Each structure stands twice: as structure tokens, then as C-alpha cells.
Amino acid sequence: MILSICSIIIRIIFIDYNSAIELLDSIPITYHLKSKNEKWSQPLIQDEKEKDIFVLFNSGGFYIIKKIDNGKVNKGFKLTNRYVENIKIYDGYVYYVYRPYESIQKKFIYKEKIPR
Description:
Strands 1, 4, 5, 6, 7 and 8 form a 6-stranded antiparallel sheet that branches. A 3-stranded antiparallel sheet has the order 9-10-11, with no helix packed on it. By secondary structure, it is mainly beta. The model is unreliable at 1-15 (pLDDT under 50). The protein is 0% helix and 53% strand.
């Protein structure tokens, strides 16, 4: 599941259909302001099984995947291959499609364990 966040603050709300919306909590998000060397790649990715949220950064064609935990970005890890496509995360693994750069080889699905 790919999520997009338009605002800088995630708001947790409770809706009571008999009254107004009540704000329960808010957490500032700053992951997109991290580094000049790493370019934030807009979508957030959720691990459907573990329910963790990850943010993608691109640095020289390599994707760096970082987990968001309580509004803060944990140290990430760089995928082994460069210029990958269709990144998905499930059960602690990242899956993606890759073909060696400038080759005529067919594309294959790759799997890497996300370090804890």
C-alpha cells in the first residue's frame, strides 16, 4: 500500500458522528528535510503484514529505505542494486524489479531483508 501525505503533520483523529471531530494527538514530520545528498521520493510504503511505514530516498540512483517510528526516521539501508523499479515491502523484506543498468537482460524480481 502506497500512502501520500500532503501535510507536514500527521493527525490522529476520533470521529463521533453525533458531534464535531476531536483532535487526539499530532506529531511533527520532518523526514523530508533530512539531507541534501538524499532526495526524498514522495510515496510512503507500508509493510502490509507488520504495519510499519517506510520512506524512500534516492541517492545517485540507489534507493535508501528508512522506517518512520513515532514521527522520526530511523537509520536506513541502501538497496544493493541501482535504478530499481516497483518497490514493495512485505513481512520485513523489500521486493523490487531490477535489470542490470544498460543491459538487454530481462527484468527479475529481487528480495532483500530489511535490517532491524
